[in-house]
Write a structure and sequence with these properties.
Layout lengths: L8 H10 L9 E4 L4 E3 L13 E4 L2 H6 L3 E2 L13 H4 L3 H10 L2 H14 L3 H12 L3 H19 L4 H7 L5 H12 L3 H7 L13 E5 L7 H10 L6 E4 L2 E7 L4 E8 L4 E7 L5 H12 L5 H8 L6 H6 L11 H10 L5 H15 L17 H5 L10 H16 L10 H9 L6 H10 L12 H10 L5 H8 L6 H9 L12
Amino acid sequence: MQTGMHTDTERCVRAVRSKDARFDGWFFTAVLTTGIYCRPSCPVVPPKPANMTFYPSAAACQQAGFRACKRCRPDTSPGSPEWNQRADLTARAMRLIADGVVDREGVPGLAARLGYSTRQIERQLLAELGAGPLALARAQRAQTARLLIETTPLPMADIAFAAGFSSVRTFNDTVREVFALSPSELRARRSPKDRPAGTPGALTLRLPFRAPLNPDNLFGHLAATAVPGVEEWRDGAYRRTLRLPYGHGVVALTPNPDHIGCRLTLTDPRDLTVAISRCRRLLDLDADPTAVDDQLRTDPLLAPLVDKAPGRRVPRTVDEAEFAVRAVLGQQVSTAAARTHAARLVTAHGDPVDDPEGGLTHLFPSARALAEVDPDTLAMPRTRRTTFTTLVGHLADGSLNLGVETDRAETRARLLALPGFGPWTADVIAMRALGDPDAFLPTDLGVRRAARDLGLPSTPAALTARAAAWRPWRAYAVQYLWATDSHPINFLPA
């Protein structure tokens, strides 16, 4: 699959006829005779090719006057894998829009974060996605509103403002226009699985993904490295606290064969869109496993690993600054020791939270709070203390930004310029915090050991040369190499 797939009519028609869910989110099918738009895997009988036209985004379909199909619910498709893979302006803008920046800061705020004029941003997004940032944010608000209507008992006025609408009237008009149903009609149509259940005040959602998805290393990694008080594995779910723009939250994520179960408790419902976006990023749910695995299978020594357990994802993070701090705490120590160091910081400097289910006690400390820590209280070697204090100082004053809008290559170079930051630390942050699908760890002991056992080159230079054939998916190759070890990160907890 590639950029601009919606322009290849013949290929899109074949995808629609095959009803292959792997294409969901790559493009959308608008049906001229009915005025609706669908995902490629829509279960209805495909229309005649002459009656189909294709768009790169749900927002473009809505802007062209098409309504969302009530059968396949295209607005709930997995996001396009392009925005994680690519590092250009459009991809960075889309990651920011998914994180709710347009709703909080407007298009000028989006442009300022990216370092371009609002006109340039508008022109670029319109050219590639058929919709500008306001239309893309509006489509996202409509999806958030639908989730709240179907999964909560909140009054419609509360839902309107929680979803980011400026007025109840705009909310009503948008829902009618996008879904051809009023908000109350949408609520009446919800299925039993969508109705509120479980913990009072919690939102229960289903997060879609492209199959296959192997949960072992994904949830195994998160559970094995969980920081007490901030994260835990309980009753088959990974639970953690979230620091969000308007407040905080607690999320429980449960792997299922066809979706990820998501149970969210938020102090402010306006954070729903951001919380969902960060959970999807944490679990790498918008990846295209077919493209990844097909590329890695071209190496005959990697192919058996891929065939044995396809669909591995890269465990990422909900907070880039938090992960960078934890990467420094984990330098040259065991997983258990890194958790101990982090837990001490959480207890001393994290913000206390109430967990309705018990077990979680704090948010991970902010960079500003950590910048005020007395270095002499840190139980680590002096050189690592310097690395820690330099990092949190740069994060706190804004001179180092690890947000979704950052240029990955430039940020990696800035990390390497910090004291105590070698290639391993910079690359693991690039892989798990910056979301670089091509980040590689040739100096990692686990990667080198796996390479040696498989018959791959085991020296960093020779392994990097061999790994050129795995690009642009070397971060996924790391997951397959790590998985050859018996470390707990590779297994779902019992």
